[in-house]
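Researcher: Next entry in the queue.
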Amino acid sequence: MLATVAFLAFWVVVGLVLFFLAVRGGPRGARATLQSQRRGARKFAAIAFTVFYVGVGIAVPVALGAGNKDSSVARVDGTEINLTRQQEEGRALFGESCANCHTLAAADAVGKVGPNLDMLRPPAELVYDAIIRGRQRGGGTMPAGLLAGEQAEAVAAFVAATAGR
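Model: Structure for this entry, 165 residues:
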């Protein structure tokens, strides 16, 4: 929530600055307006803008980090599924490597190329085999070796634990 407010505040300020530039007739008019003010007012404006931009640069990443504290829980249709450390890693890897093609509600993935894993509900062994060996059926092709070793196991564990729930 805080990150959203900070993000919106940043763009509101950018919009106000652009509006100020437009009303004053461009950069030259804005510069003339700002230079006609007292030195103290210009200094205050410079400090205020600096504090705001530094604040947004720090507040937004901190708020996003604090908002991710709940990453060990997957939500599917309002139901929480507690994930192990391996499954958390699998969720992140699934998002990077698999979500473009496959549908899986626990990963908020709505791919249209590969099979819908929520409907298929594959066991971990089948997912692992598909990641390592690849698949070629019908009009789609899943390349072999997208991930390997522990990464493939993590994705397989995540899919098996969450698919169809």
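Model: The longest strand covers residues 73-76.
Researcher: Noted, moving on.
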